[in-house]
Amino acid sequence: MSVKSNPFRATLAKMHPYVPGEQPQGGKFIKLNTNENPYPAPPAVTAAIISAAQAGLQRYPDPTASSFRRQAAETLGLPGPDWILAGNGSDEILTILVRAMVGEGERLRLPYPSYILYRTLADIQGADWEQTEFDKDWKLPAAFGEASSDGEQKLRLAFLPNPNSPSGTVLTPDEVLEIAERLPCPLVVDEAYADFAETNCLKLVEQNENIFITRTLSKSYALAGLRFGFVIAQPHRIAELGKIKDSYNCDALSIAAATAAVGSSEWLADNVQKIKATRRRMEQKLTEIGFKVTPSQANFVWCQHPHKSHKEMYEQLKKSQILVRYMDFPEWGDGLRISVGTDDQVDACLMLLAQM
Ligand SMILES: *Cc1c(COP(=O)(O)O)cnc(C)c1O
Q1: Rounded distance, CA 108 to CA 159, Å?
Q2: Would you say residue 328 lies in a domain?
Q3: Helix or strand or coil: residue 78?
Q4: Rounded CA gap, 165 and 177, in Å?
């Protein structure tokens, strides 16, 4: 048997791994770096996990998470459960979308600065990606909705996080529909933070078969540790995506928990109110102490200081056991993305920033 020195696909050698935000294990950090919810999940979630565990785990789970899809369709006012595909976190959903639509040598489009993971997903496929830069007030140039300028029609999929990260800014449903109608390929609207925003694009899915909306339970439902996300699209699109997913991509405990979570509408409304109130205070205080703050519709705030070093502020906060996200976008600039924590956590962070 001949042994090649590198058994991996050529595309891997060229590829940089995606680096998620720091997740310190142990130590008492105030974590304001990965947009987790600072409050515990809806109480019905724990009860549902215990009850599913007591029922036993010797059988495979429901392959399509039907109980979850029924509850989510009802909560979101969708025509039916066949408009939803569930996944092991919305990151898995994004992977399924890319595997389903973007082949080797084809291309994916994303705005910049935004969620870098999309580029990694293209790299894994051996596909290319191209970026459209937001302008300085986070408006997205019309080029984002146009065919590729080189005339080659390799573009297969466009990603739009809405609200965007790191900015927390949103495009209105009208703006998103207009982009979808002009694009020569489908559009994934990544609504990881939509529960914190004033608008969302759910209704557009019924008007346009080329719109896919992704949601996660990690942020607004306080379940980042559970790993549950889903995509909403027209039923014939969902059926195609179903061919790509693993047979049992969601486990029985997470299906039970996610079903209970999306049934907890009052909890969600209350949690979102608290986060928004704290966000408003954060924005005011950061502005008072000299930051340029981008008004946010998510559970984090993007801020830049006109003359202090963002990197140094990040490092000083870390020494005091407070983690925020320092982000540096080459040729664009850097800044701090600070998640909305509890009032106490946010006050501790703001107090130190004010002294720097
Ligand atoms: C957090 C986040 C996700 C990932 O959500 P998971 O369900 O935890 O995988 C997807 N997209 C964006 C823009 C996010 O910020």
Answers
A1: 8
A2: yes
A3: coil
A4: 20
Query: Which residue positions in the chain have pLDDT lower than 70?
Result: 1-4, 151-152
DSSP 176-222: HHHHHHH-SS-EEEE-TTGGGSS---TTHHHH-TTEEEEEESSSTTS
In the prediction, which pLDDT does 123 show? 95
pLDDT at 293: 98
* CA distance linking residue 41 with residue 49, whole number of Å: 12
One domain for residues 71 and 200: yes
Give the other-Cβ count within 10 Å of 234's Cβ.
18
Single out the residue in 200, 233, 264 at which a domain terminates: 264
Q: Which of 239, 264, 289 is the last residue of a domain?
A: 264
Indicate the helix (H) or strand (E) that contains 54: helix 43-54
The pocket around ligand 1, CB under 6 angstroms, is made up of 35, 89-91, 115, 161, 165, 190, 192, 216, 218, 224, 229
Query: For residues 335 and 302, is the Cβ–Cβ distance under 8 A?
Result: yes
160 and 291 belong to one structural domain: no
CATH at residue 108: 3.40.640.10
CA 119: distance to chain centroid? 14
How far does residue 356's CA lie from ligand 1's centre (Å)? 31
Closest CA to 94 of 195, 9, 192: 192
Strand partners, 339: 300
3-state secondary structure of 114: coil
Instruction: Tell me how far the alpha carbon of residue 223 lies from the centroid of ligand 1, in angstroms.
Output: 11
Residue 314 sits in which domain range?
10-32+266-355
Q: Tell me if the bond preceding 330 is cis, omega within 30° of 0.
A: no
Query: Do both 115 and 228 map to the same domain?
Result: yes
The per-residue pLDDT for 168 is 98
CATH number at residue 292: 3.90.1150.10
